[in-house]
Each structure stands twice: as structure tokens, then as C-alpha cells.
Amino acid sequence: MPARNHWNGKIQGGSGEVEQVKIIWVGTELEESEYWREGGYAIWGQFEVIMDHYLAFEGAEWYAKAVPNGLIP
Known about the structure:
47% strand
């Protein structure tokens, strides 16, 4: 099960920015791991970010969208 991180700046006095990140463990093999999913990126030497979505006033940006990641493509 992926770990989820969420930043919600859409509160009174907040930045107005929102970011959602899903991270999975893939082991030290990273891209060579059987758990690696196409479309993600490596962090911390053993983990892959399988979803990174940022939303601000300027628009939305996908930094990672691995398939599958629990979202409908």
C-alpha cells in the first residue's frame, strides 16, 4: 500500500496550493526492481514516487504519474 502525503493550502490564510504524493518501497534496485512502475521517479535510495500532482493558481502540474497508481488513467 502506498504512503500518501498531502499538502492543503486551501485554507484561510493558506498558500492556495495543493500537492498530493504517493510513495512506494521498491528496494535498492530502484528502476530494476520488480515493484518499479513506469512513470515514477526514485527518492531516498529505496522508494519510488508513483504519483505527484501539484495544483496552484497558475494551473496543475503532474511531476509523476506511474501506471498503475490507484488512479484511473
